[in-house]
Amino acid sequence: MLLLALVLAGLAWEGYKLVGDEDGGSVFGVRVLPRADDVSMPHLWEIAQRLADPELSAAGSHSVLVAVLLAMWFTFRVAFVGWLIGVVVGLVLAVLMQRVRVAEAALLPYVVVSQTVPLVALAPLVVGWGGHLTLFGRPWQPWMSVSLIAGYLAFFPVAVGALRGLQSPSATQVELLHCQAASWWQTLLRLRLPASVPYVVPALRLAAAASVVGAIVAEISTGTRGGIGRLIIEYAQSATGDPAKPFTALLGAALLGVLGAALVSLIELGLRRYAPAGSGEVRS
Asked: Would residue 86 count as lying in a domain?
């Protein structure tokens, strides 16, 4: 399916470039379609050829492909840490809100409102605060701020999805366990957590995508070097003379999102036994 999606996206790109207007399309003076010229939309084979070209950097001489892969590896690790932070915080909040109804009424509005704060405004604050912190006796590193911002985006879908899943068991199911003298902890482990899996898995997938987006935006906003976000800015500066080069970094950013979704799919395979009866798969 992934290969088919990539092929269809490539055909759509080249198809639009073939029939699209070089000046784009406008409705009432508002541009609704992108330009199809070689500067705005280079051919896919030009982007592929650019990946093989040499790239000179302070770390040595290598191809653009190697530079993109190194940047992807940096951003992937930072985004993965952010994803873990988001998952842990989201699950803890969901369990707390399910256990204490007052906590749900008090916290859920703030959880929702938290996602309205723009990252470009939040990132400098996180970097400023982090500069005065130490972690286990070690100074705060710039990548930690990026991971924290990625986790800030990732915790929201996990918290909302897990809360919905934890509340999904019927009153009859909960009462049955109570009749068997099950404690709240036993009810959580044996009923609520298994029942929440069909809701949590899609939330984990959304969180993975959000952590990648958060890491890239945070790298750009904070000026953190080494990641794909910084590489996008650096390559964009040469867009006029080398229009295909910025798309190599954008391709790496897109592949990071695909990689995150693929890793969540591996988790989904291990949780298939919790899928609803007769569905054959975890709800997504």
From this structure: yes
